[in-house]
Amino acid sequence: MKKAIAVAGPTAVGKTKFAIEIARSFDGEIVSCDSMQLYKYMNIGSAKPTPEEMAQVKHHLVDFLDPREDFSVARYQKLATGTIDEIFAAGKIPVISGGTGLYLNSLLYDMDFSAVPQDFSYRNQLAELAEKEGSQALHDILAQKDQAAAACIHPNNAKKIIRALERLREGEGSVRPFSTIKEADRDYEIILIGLTRDRAELYDRINMRVDILMEAGLADEVRNLMNMGLTTEHISMKGIGYKEIMDHFLGKCTLEEAVEIVKKNTRHYAKKQLTWFRRYDKMNWYNISEYDSDNDAVEDIVKWLATKL
After folding, report:
1. Do 128 and 120 contact (CB within 8 A), yes or no?
2. CA angle 168, 172, 175 (to 5 degrees)
3. Residue 233: CB partners within 8 Å, gap ≥ 6?
4. pLDDT tens sequence across 274-294
């Protein structure tokens, strides 16, 4: 069976560097698994790979989508699986890289959230809550009712969270438990590599990265996107780093307050990502903090992968 590699982990852990080194070691090409890096004009806040990094290894599903355009997990799955097939056809190894658990789920599992109940009063109630408190509040409710279902839906996707809550209201069996979801029937295997770091180090890296993004011009990037007509209603602008800086421009907080909120929300998101990825029994974890350097960790991972490919 053909084999692909997936490099997953929390934000700021170092996935881009590791994925590039792994792809270079095995003549691979990278397939992005990041819900923000697919958007054009959103280079800084998404921590998109630099032109220098993308010149080292061919990248797919990065910087191709207009941020005003709707995008679904179903569309990601179709694009990603098609890209993976093309990479195999070229005689290379796909290296899936990113931290969006829902996107990775779509490549690993047979998921179905398509059926929609028609209880409009309950739907309106949930929509009003999302309007007042944000989609994260809805996601927290879903996590209390069905943690496994919450692990399958991005916290920014209010529409899908509402659909899942509607199904749960109609009957507890409406949303399939994570443990019962079957692996996707594909003609290739995905070897899972999970990257982590000690919490203090990871949080320091997150805080430092936010400062670097601000120095790189994140505020100007958000202002330019707003000038293009993007608002809080666009899913692309609900990403961490964008929504908080937009709140500053909307007069809801100072820039300094917005930066601190970005750091706090990013740390919280990293924790959720780790919880999500730890659900995967087949994930092979590497704590980079236990190595003398990132390069030592890369070397160890590459040696292990060489025995599996």
Report:
1. no
2. 65
3. none
4. 999 998 999 999 999 999 999
